[in-house]
Design goal:
Elements lengths: L1 H12 L8 H7 L2 E8 L7 H14 L4 E5 L7 H4 L5 H4 L1 E3 L2 E3 L1 E3 L2 E5 L15 H13 L6 E7 L6 H9 L5 E7 L2 H16 L4 E7 L3 E2 L6 E2 L6 H9 L3 E4 L4 H9 L11 H17 L1
Parallel strand pairs: 1-7, 1-8, 2-6, 2-7, 8-9, 9-12
Antiparallel strand pairs: 3-4, 5-6, 10-11
Helix pairs in contact: 3-11, 6-7, 8-9
């Protein structure tokens, strides 16, 4: 065990730019598993997956936190039905107390914006500072899982979070079966590997649409591409989500689809993905 810790320390030392922060190290030591949800392309369902993963873990009696580090386009508050974000997250004795929704603790940029339509026009150093606060100045407490929703790409936010957290337990890559999205997904996998973050697997979204009239399955972007990419890269394939209008309704209404999984195929698939993640973490 000591040898393994030393090896991880040596790996972190090869990641330049951010020295280890004692406050972050202490806060993260109370969290058993830290999982990053990433994609290298927008619009593939990353926040949807992060929200449903966190809520489904909570349904399994796990203590869960959800951190949204999408500085420019935060959406977690909307997807969790948090109507008054600024009033939901408090500061007590110089510590940020997370908001709560569906039994999970939630922190993100959306809680800091007085006007939801106001753009966040920040350069890298300001984003780095707020992510440092989200990690070290938040009263996360003892958690089984911290799910981190990252913006698209392999830039400031995902790089910062991977360098700041002493040990990231894994990354989940979400994509669609479209070849251009899969090309970007390969880059996300390589990003995680370069930062010594284990890739837990790939989730393919919008894999098929079920015709509401005849029940025929229509594969919009091709068949089995996500599974083939995972096999080619030697990583786990966690499952394919259907193109389900109920996912959109759930996100807009603030009630994650995993809460009503018996009513949708997408909800059932999401629960199977969560079961696989729990298995990998155990």
């Amino acid at each position: 065990m000591t040898e393994e810790k030393e090896q991880r320390k040596d790996q972190r030392s090869t990641q330049p730019g951010i020295p280890e922060d004692p406050k972050i190290t202490l806060a993260m030591s109370h969290i058993r598993h830290k999982i990053l949800v990433i994609s290298n392309k927008g619009g593939v369902g990353k926040s949807m997956l992060a929200v449903n993963l966190a809520v489904a873990l909570g349904l399994r009696k796990k203590a869960v936190g959800l951190l949204d580090i999408d500085i420019h386009g935060p959406s977690i508050t909307k997807m969790l039905g948090i109507d008054n974000p600024q009033e939901s997250m408090q500061v007590v004795e110089q510590k940020i107390v997370p908001a709560e929704a569906y039994g999970i603790k939630v922190v993100g940029m959306g809680f800091l914006l007085g006007d939801s339509d106001a753009p966040v026009i920040w350069r890298g150093p300001m984003k780095t500072n707020v992510i440092r606060q989200f990690l070290g100045d938040v009263s996360w407490g003892d958690l089984d899982y911290l799910i981190i929703d990252s913006p698209p790409g392999t830039g400031d936010e995902p790089l910062t979070i991977c360098q700041m957290i002493p040990r990231m337990d894994g990354a989940i890559i979400i994509t669609t079966a479209q070849e251009i999205a899969l090309l970007d997904s390969r880059k996300a996998v390589r990003f995680a590997q370069k930062l010594n973050v284990p890739v837990l697997g790939i989730v393919e979204n919008m894999g098929w649409l079920t015709c509401p009239k005849c029940g025929e399955r229509i594969e919009l972007f091709g068949h089995g591409n996500g599974e083939q990419i995972a096999a080619g890269l030697g990583i786990n394939y966690l499952g394919t989500l259907p193109f389900d209008p109920q996912i959109v309704v759930a996100g807009d209404s603030g009630r994650p689809i995993v809460l009503d999984s018996e009513k949708s195929e997408a909800g059932k698939v999401l629960h199977s993905i969560v079961d696989r993640v729990v298995e990998l973490m155990s």
